[in-house]
Amino acid sequence: MGAAIARQQSGGDPVYFSRPGVALVTWNPDLRAVCLEPQARANTSDAQAVLDSMIRALRAHHGSRWLLDGRKMKAAKRADQDWITKSWLPRAAAAGLKLAAIVQLTCHVAKVPDNGIDLRFFSTVEKAAEWLTSPRLVD
């Protein structure tokens, strides 16, 4: 786990979802971002609960940033991917999401609909956190 996300567990930041073996969702005030650390492939209802908890965190903190540490994440089922694209992403954008940094082990670029969210992929949590907190990015 990267230092940016590790700080949140010891720092007592708000937890919006925590289920061992599924995922951890917290708010990181240093990054001003909702942070998601999947721990395995979630079933459909867990995946939806995780992502909906991120929307709650964005709204609670008037946030616009998301950091996903996807290094342990398995590929989502096609039906879940469709739900994310058609249902969750528009609701996340409406909740204020503008910047999304995804850390993954392999180089992969996903096609996402034009929803006003700047989505970038990174090889480390530190690089993702640096991009999210860049002074040239405006909330």
Structure description:
This protein has 139 residues and is α/β, with parallel strands linked by helices. α2 runs parallel beside α3. It has four helices and six strands; from the N terminus they run αβββαβαββα. Strands 1-2-3-4-5-6 form a six-stranded mixed β-sheet, sandwiched between helices. The chain is globular and about 35 Å long.
Helicity level = 25-40%
Strand proportion: 15-25%
Gap between N and C termini: 26 Å
Average the pLDDT over all residues and give the rounded result: 83
How many beta-strand runs?
A: 6
- Order of helix and strand elements from N to C terminus: HEEEHEHEEH
Derived from helix and strand composition plus strand pairing, the structural class reads alpha/beta
Strand order of the largest sheet: 1-2-3-4-5-6
Largest sheet: 6 strands, mixed
Q: How many individual helices?
A: 4
Low-pLDDT windows of residues: 1-10
Task: Give the overall shape.
Answer: globular
Work out the radius of gyration: 14 Å
Quickly list its features.
139 residues; alpha/beta; six-stranded mixed β-sheet; 23% strand; globular
Can you summarize this structure?
This protein has 139 residues and is α/β, with parallel strands linked by helices.
Draw up the topology in text:
Layout: H1 3-11, E1 15-19, E2 23-28, E3 33-38, H2 44-60, E4 65-69, H3 78-94, E5 99-103, E6 118-122, H4 125-132
Parallel strand pairs: 3-4, 4-5, 5-6
Antiparallel strand pairs: 1-2, 2-3
Helix pairs in contact: 2-3
